[in-house]
Amino acid sequence: MDIDRLGIHESVSAVFPPETLAERLRSLDPAVTIVDDDVSDVDAVASFGHSDAFLGLEWVHCIRAGYDEFPVADYREAGTALTNSSGIHGAAVGETALGLMLSLARRLHTARDAQAAHEWDQPEWDEAFTLYDEPLTVVGLGAVGQGVARRADGIGMRVDGVRRTPTPTPHTREVYTPDRLHDAVADARFVALATPLTEETDGMVDRSVFEAMREDAYLVNVARGAVADEDALVEAVETGEIAGAGLDVFETEPLPEDSPLWDLEDVVITPHTGALKRDYYQDIADLVQQNVLHAAADEELVNRVA
């Protein structure tokens, strides 16, 4: 694979300035430029989102782990290699999930609301609890899910997991297969979603899953919004079927102003910032640089998905 000219697509501005990544990659042999959808002068592109203009290039790198917006079959048909950024988000997303759980357990979100209203409003004696010894089920045990499990285990939570193969993983006690999802969530105080969005996982957390959860349980979603049925989630919280949720991702983003999720007291909302960190561009640059070297040596690209 010959990569003489590498483009940094302007869409990466959703995460960091394109110039930051371009400058970090200036030392590469391929000439590095910032591009829009006119990619006629480059052989490869690093991008946040898909454009049909990319089809026919040598290689496209998605700067996210989730590549569900990229039409994989079209890339294969066009002969364009597609890679993603799986494997670099465990720490940031793991800390985000832990932060959401801590906020709900320690009532930090209600304290912040009270601060905004200049009110001294302590929780009731039986509201706050600690995460220590609380059961957590992590659905999806890839790099992100294991990042959540590691941090939860580190503060003493009892962690189980769900994955396609029930192979034991570090920081989990028991691993269930997806067909046993109801069993996996039945005893959990927290259920954290960390699975990619696929045909199999689209809507997998539906009304029946909320019915299987404890009434004092919380859903934490740092995966993709569509993994959980949002209408069923709202109903479950409003009716007390579950206690609440910590959500970083949503079926529609940005979350519409009229979404009932905004007004649910025990739902903590963050605007899809789970993976963000100031040196994110460094991790992306390392992956891109590694694959430039692989391409030059005619070796298999890292994280190739098409």
Q: What's the overall geometry?
A: elongated
Number of strands: 12
CATH homologous superfamily descriptor of the largest domain: NAD(P)-binding Rossmann-like Domain
Provide the CATH architecture of the largest domain.
3-Layer(aba) Sandwich
Largest sheet composition: 7 strands, parallel
Fraction of residues in β-strands: 15-25%
Helix content: 25-40%
Run of helices and strands:
EHEEEHEHHEHEEHEHEHEEH
* The level-1 CATH class of the largest domain: Alpha Beta
Main features:
306 residues; alpha/beta; Rossmann fold; 2 domains; seven-stranded parallel beta sheet; five-stranded parallel beta sheet; 12 strands; 29% helix; 16% strand
Could you explain the architecture of this structure?
- This protein has 306 residues and is α/β, with parallel strands linked by helices.
- It has two domains: 5-88 and 278-296, Rossmann fold; 90-269, NAD(P)-binding Rossmann-like Domain (Rossmann fold), CATH 3.40.50.720.
- Helix content is 29%, strand content 16%.
- The chain has helices at 18-24, 72-78, 90-106, 108-116, 143-154, 181-185, 207-212, 230-238, 280-296, and strands spanning 5-9, 31-35, 44-47, 59-62, 81-83, 135-139, 158-162, 175-176, 190-193, 218-221, 244-247, 267-269.
- A seven-stranded parallel sheet has the order 8-7-6-9-10-11-12. Strands 2-1-3-4-5 form a five-stranded parallel sheet, sandwiched between helices.
- β9, α7 (207-212) and β10 (218-221) form a beta-alpha-beta unit.
- The two termini are 15 Å apart.
